[in-house]
Specification:
The protein folds into two domains: 167 residues, Ribosomal Protein S5, domain 2; 134 residues, Alpha-Beta Plaits (2-Layer Sandwich). 44% of the residues lie in helices and 24% in strands. The protein is built from nine helices and ten strands. It has 313 residues and is α+β, with helices and mostly antiparallel strands. The protein binds (R)-mevalonate (MEV). (R)-mevalonate binds next to helix 4 and helix 5.
Length: 313
Amino acid sequence: MRGCLMGKGSGYGKAILFNEHFVIYSVPSIVSAIDKATTATVEHSSGSGWTLEDSRPATPGYKEEKLEQQKESIERILKAAGIGPTETPIKITFGGDLVAASGIGASAASCTALARALSDEFNLGLSDGRINELAYEGEKGYHGSPSGIDNTAATYGGLIWFVRGEPNVMERIKIKRPVEVVMGNTGLVANTKVAVAGVRERKEKSPEKYEKLFNEAKELAFMAKKALVDYDLKAVGKLMDENHRQLQAIEVSCKELNHLVDLARANGAYGAKMTGGGLGGNMVALTPGKDLQDQVARAIKKEGFDVLMTRIG
Ligand code: MEV
């Protein structure tokens, strides 16, 4: 049954601060939602099935590259929400101020936004837990077997300790006050599925090397949580640097990401690392205070890259 003229919803973008990729194998991870979001509206339309207007700002090429995955994702969400041919035709519109780019949680933000808009339009009364499940279902359209970290950040917001499991562990990390960060966009549209498959392949080929790296990443997550809670930002930055090295070791960084990370560090960032799936997409630099944030953002912009100045926590 339709509830209103137009259902609305939104989902946050995110920055993974520690242990993307490792998180797939149940290594603890830390993610923060950011203050940019994707919005979705759902409205009755004519014709049959669903149509999509994707008005999100985006990295050039991103939407075209992801279109097939996006279609599968939408189908999955509709199915999981129990919305079939008798409820459609509907028109779905995506918008908001989150730039659709790799590494920033764009797919998860849109999945959460759509789940919320459907709940609103069809009076489903879905809880956050159920919204998160639908968004997870949608994320599968983008990369097969996601860990669930991105949709959890998109749905709940805030700073989160996340461990994949049955069930997932999700704890809020409380810090004294939010911290400024700069996200730098390589402009490269990356395929998370490919990055995830690459790690799996190399892990199978060199189990001992990877086991050691995975154990180190696990230890680092606990140190990072403590440093965040203690608000020891220098320590948080150093751990981000270390995590970047670990991500380089599992071969998910690339020269453009390494360049942005080096640039951020050279301009005073407390620490910097790639964030998200890697092989392109975004890096995140810890830049406490407006002045440092401006300084790092300026240096990156000067080289022609897009930046996002936001906060974690
Ligand atoms: C992507 O934002 C994070 C990855 O760890 C994939 C996942 O957790 O599903 C690369």
